[in-house]
Amino acid sequence: MTALAVTRPAIAGDIKVGSLIVENPWARATPKGAKVGAGYLSIFNIGKVDDRLISATTDISKSVEIHSVSMTNGIMKMRKLSDGLAIKSKNLVDFKPGGYHLMFIDLKARLKKEQSFNVTLKFEKTGEIDVLFLTSGIGGKSPYPSEEETSGSNSGSQSGQSN
Ligand SMILES: [Cu+2]
């Protein structure tokens, strides 16, 4: 094991398929007996054509739903997006606590900290993308360094190579 100042797991890289870049997929550990879990990630569409996340599947739960969260009179409500979520051209869609998330419905086992598991995302245009999720603690934060926390060491997702 190497002890780096910034522990970004080597197994998880940003994945680029077609015009989509999927970054930082992670989930929260779940308490004993919990039937659902939540997963988060970022999806960039660097292409000229709009795409749409239509569904997802995984081995860890019976099904996966795409949820949004809205605030109504101070009450947070989750809503299932039955038609999926648009990932528009030149846009970044962030799934994060309090916002869009993947809901793992009917977990087969509880999610433990530092576990990793596979999720297959299905997009209307791009097709399927296999993504490896990493699990943080119960109620924890993303296991990836956030941009604010790593200011200075900007690995620059916007000034990428021209291809
Ligand atoms: Cu939800």
Helices and strands in order:
Layout: E1 15-17, E2 20-28, E3 36-45, E4 51-58, E5 61-72, E6 75-80, E7 85-87, E8 91-94, E9 101-107, E10 116-123, E11 127-136
Parallel strand pairs: 2-11
Antiparallel strand pairs: 1-2, 2-3, 3-8, 3-9, 4-7, 4-10, 5-6, 5-9, 10-11
Question: What's the mean pLDDT score?
Answer: 85
> Termini distance?
34 Å
Shape: globular
**What's the CATH topology name?**
Immunoglobulin-like
Number of domains: 1
User: What's the SSE pattern?
Assistant: EEEEEEEEEEE
Regarding CATH, which class?
Answer: Mainly Beta
- Cα Rg: 16 Å
Structural class: mainly beta
What does this structure look like?
- This protein is mainly β and 163 residues long.
- The chain has one domain: Sandwich (Immunoglobulin-like), CATH 2.60.40.
- Helix content is 0%, strand content 49%.
- The protein contains no helices and 11 strands.
- Strands 1, 2, 3, 4, 5, 6, 7, 8, 9, 10 and 11 form an 11-stranded mixed sheet that branches.
- A hairpin with a 3-residue loop joins strand 10 and strand 11 (127-136).
- The protein is globular.
- The chain binds copper (II) ion.
